[in-house]
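Q: How would the structure tokens look for this protein?
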Amino acid sequence: MTEHSSRATPPKRSGVLGFVRDNGLGLFFTVSFLLALVGQTIAGHADFNNQMAADRLQQVSLGEYITTSDFAVDVSENWQSEYLQFFLYVGVTVWLLQRGSPESKELHKGGTESDEVQLVGKYAKAGSPKWARAGGWRRAVYSHSLLLVMGTIFLLSWLVQSITGVAAYNEQRLRQLQAPLSWADYLGAADFWNRTLQNWQSELLAVASMAVLSIYLRQRGSPESKPVGAAHGATGVEG
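A: Here is the predicted structure in token form.
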């Protein structure tokens, strides 16, 4: 069997079981995300009402809580850090390499690579996306579409965090009989950067750990790991 045929895309399976099998990874993380969001909502509601009780203020229902700035800022500050992680990872792995890591390209492949390798323009295959076969701005946009979308979601979620964050921060200041801050002032406040950087550092540490630990450690059968018997110095090899 040739290398090309061994990598051919298998036919889609029909029915519910076939759909679950073909989309198991996306479904697992989507369901896990929803369960975690529900759990955060319940726990956050309880914590918020505890704070209201401590301040001798009226408690709120669960429905009212999810419309508060406190809930919105807690959600958005996590989203923006996650999308920053992937935005940076997608972008820097074009050029930056890590010897021995399956998270890195092979050491001689740094850069955006040739049209032939990327299967664009005259090198596109029958199943290639239309914009990969096109030229001009459409190919240019599609060639960087993943980075553009990740970056856009990051910026939007960071904007939402700043807007909801200043609202939540000002509510707390008003309870303490302090003057509220403007949005511009809040962008320079310690509260905003404390919320932001505590999420960034954890995401960047996780990526660095994955890139380096996968040089020496293995998980049999995972595409995020090298084959168990691969040399530590083997780069860009997935299991």
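Residues 1-6 have pLDDT under 50 and may be disordered.

The radius of gyration is 23 Å.

Upvote if useful.
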